[in-house]
Amino acid sequence: MPARLLVAIAFPLLLVSAVTAARTTAAPLLRVGGVASSAQDAEYPPQLSEGEVTLVLSPRWEDSALVVTVRANTHSVELGSLDLGALTRLVVGDEEIAPAQAGSLSGHHARATLIFRLKARPDHFAIRIRDVPDVPVRTLTWPEERGTSAPTP
Questions:
Q1: 69-79 pLDDT, tens per residue?
Q2: What Rg do the C-alpha atoms of the chain give, in angstroms?
Q3: What CATH architecture is 41-142?
Q4: Domain extent listing, the chain
């Protein structure tokens, strides 16, 4: 009986430890020509662009693609008139890349997905969206570029 009790207690603990280790262990990145390559998926912090239409972009690296969730909120513009595929470009170095797939927005509170197929995960990139009402060009950069504000004490 004590052996069964030991197995019943130890097995779940070992399983939890293995799952936790798998979640926290990151594969090393290989840097090649401005891109970082990893076998694991990665999420980047979301960024906000305010205006008559507020956009929140949340990119993640998944299955050899940069997948970007775009959330849009407005109370004055019909979002269905915006063609994200035509208006959005991924900028990696000097190259501008159109999305391979682009979802559509509709209504006043919408969500769509952009998919950019790439050979390797970029370590620096920007997403440029133009002609969204009241902001001619929005450029969001990852990692975020820090402003030149006064030094913190």
A1: 999 999 998 89
A2: 21
A3: Sandwich (2.60)
A4: 41-142
